[in-house]
Amino acid sequence: MNRGKAGFDRFTTFLLFLVFAGLATWGIGLAVDWDVAHRIGEYADRDFWAGLPDRENYDNILRITSLVLFVLGLVLLAVNIERKRLGRKTSPASGTAGVISIHPADLASAVAQTFEARDDIRSATFRAVQDRSTDVLEIRLRATADADVMGLREACTQASSDIAAALPDQDIRPRFLLQIEQVTQGN
Hints:
The protein is an alpha+beta fold. It has two domains: 3-81, no CATH class; 89-180, Cation efflux protein, cytoplasmic domain (Alpha-Beta Plaits), CATH 3.30.70. The protein is built from six helices and five strands. Keywords: Membrane, Transmembrane, Transmembrane helix.
């Protein structure tokens, strides 16, 4: 998620906090008989709210309100579920003879397949995304409980160097997530 989306989410959450905190404080104030809460309640046109369901356009008011809230919910959902996948990258080694391009996901796939060939790795998955304005190749490794963690760390370091060599002058950062299975106790 980029900073703009995160800021929008925080602003929306803060506005909702203010609305619900105000309503909760007002409700508690009415329950404990605070004068301030009663004065705030006097500003509400109770006749309007009490008579609202009896109006002939009440169904239309509900439909329009629900439609507006539904569209607002879809907008908030669309803003938050977008994932920025990485596209093809052109190598700086390209010249007049031709263009060399590579898709970072293909490179991440090759790295994951290399790790899957190891005996102490159960599975290796990958993704190439932009995370907080940073291009990332994420390799998720699921290792057995008896895996050589130091050996895996060295292999991750080597794979990171290989990625940097395959994508020279590209600001793509590898991220290795290691998940170790639990040790099962024998009976």
